[in-house]
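[step 3/7] fold_predict: job queued, chain A
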Amino acid sequence: MSVDWLVGDHTAAAAERILDVAGQCFAERGVTGATIGDIALAAGCSRPTIYRYFEDRDALRIAFVHREARRIGAHVAAKAEAEADPKARLIDAVVEALVRVRSDPVLAAWFRGDQRGTTTDIAATSQVILAITAAFLGDSTDDDIRDRARWVVRIVLSLLNDPGESEAEERRLLERYLAPVVVPAQRPTRRNANLRRERT
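[step 4/7] structure written:
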């Protein structure tokens, strides 16, 4: 295998290539089973080369999760953008995230068997995933929004680790038990309140 992608000032490209190869190794050997040596062999480089870009295996795993979270977050945000109702928008976003993870063999591998504990630990403590989710919900610096985002992340992880019987069942559960908690009831504006008084 050619290692031209490691030559010259291609740091970002090299890191991306390593993450691509790592993803395949995670899918084939498991998240906890794939070693730096496996990834280096598959990438056609040495272990020290991997360590030039990632401090250790945990750092590589976290970088992979963050990259994929950003990618899925962008797709989810784009797809949900057209929905005006905040509750429906949240439900659509969660369902889309679930579908995207489950339909990608590399990502689905993170939620099989004994991989789930490692995956849940990384995702549940990831400030990147929290920030992406909080930004989707509103002001990502607002403590209340960040708490709501934490709850959304936990629900998504729960459904990835223990799927419902069908997408319809998951959607129903999200509508009943997630959206009402995460999306606060809209307070009437003064204009709407005035209109209601005029009608009575």
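[step 5/7] annotate
The chain has a mean pLDDT of 89.
The first helix runs from residue 11 to 29.
exit 0
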